[in-house]
Amino acid sequence: MNSIKFIFGFLIAATVLLAIGGCERENGTATFYFDQNGANATVAVGGQNATISSNYQSNPPLCGTSAAGCANFVLPAGTYNYMASSNTSSWSGSVTIVGNQCTEVLLTQSTGSVIFWTTSNSFGNITVNINNGSGTITSYITGGIPTCGFSGCATFDLVPGVYAYTASASQGGATWNGNVTITADGCQPVQFQ
Fold first, then answer.
1. Which of 57, 105, 154, 192 is the most exposed place for a label (fewest CB within 10 A)?
2. What is the C-alpha separation between 52 and 66, in angstroms, rounded?
3. Residue 119, SS3?
4. What are the pLDDT digits (tens) for 157-190?
C-alpha cells in the first residue's frame, strides 16, 4: 500500500513539474539606444534585427517598443547575446530580458572633438553650427592653437565622421563654411580668419 502511495505521489509531482516546465516564458523588452549624435546602427538580438536612428543626449528614452529611434526587441525572458554595428563602431555583449519588464542598453560610442577658434578681435562673437548643434566663440586666442574645451572657443564632441559646418560673425558680416573630419579621441582645430 505504501508503495502505491509513493508511486501515486511521484506521478503527481512529475505531472506538476512537467506542467510548470511546459509553461511559456513571459515576454520582456530590450531597448538599445545612443546618447551621442552619430551614424545609424543595426542591432541583432535573438534572431531579430532593428535599427537605432536617433539619439537621447539629455535623458534615456522611455524604455519599450514605443521608444522612437531606438532598437526595440520583445522576446521571451532569458539572456541573449547581441551584436550591433554602425559605419564607425561595433558592439557585442549579452542582455538579460525579464518577463513583463523593459531593459535599457546604452551603446557607448567613441567620440572625437573639434574646436573652432579665431586669432582676430574684429569679428565679435562667432556662432558656429554643426550637426544640429550650435556654439559660440566669445574671445580671440593668441599664442598658439588651443586645445579642445578651451574657454572662449566653440568645442563639439561628435562620433567619428565628416561633418559640414557654418559660422557667422556678429560684427563685420564674415561667414564661413566647410567640412571637418572627426577622429576617435582626436581634437581637430578649425581657425576662422
1. 57
2. 13
3. coil
4. 988 889 999 999 999 999 999 999 999 899 999 9
Q: Do 32 and 52 form a contact (C-beta atoms < 8 A)? A: yes
Q: Phi/psi at 169 (nearest 5 deg)? A: -90, 145
Amino acid 116: pLDDT: 98
Same fold, 25-106 and 112-192: yes
Q: What is the pLDDT of residues 35-63, one digit of tens each?
A: 877 668 999 999 999 999 988 888 899 99
Torsions phi, psi of 150, nearest 5? -60, 135
Are the CB atoms for 104 and 67 separated by under 8 Å?
no
* pLDDT at site 75: 97
- Distance from C-alpha of 162 to C-alpha of 179, rounded to nearest angstrom: 7
- For 1, other C-beta atoms within 10 Å of its C-beta total 5
Q: Residue length, the chain?
A: 193
CB distance 126 to 171 below 8 Å? no
Nearest to residue 58, comparing CAs of 38, 82, 23, 34?
34
Domain boundaries, the chain: 25-106, 112-192
34, 91, 30: which is closest to 59 by C-alpha? 34
Range 112-192: architecture per CATH: Sandwich (2.60)
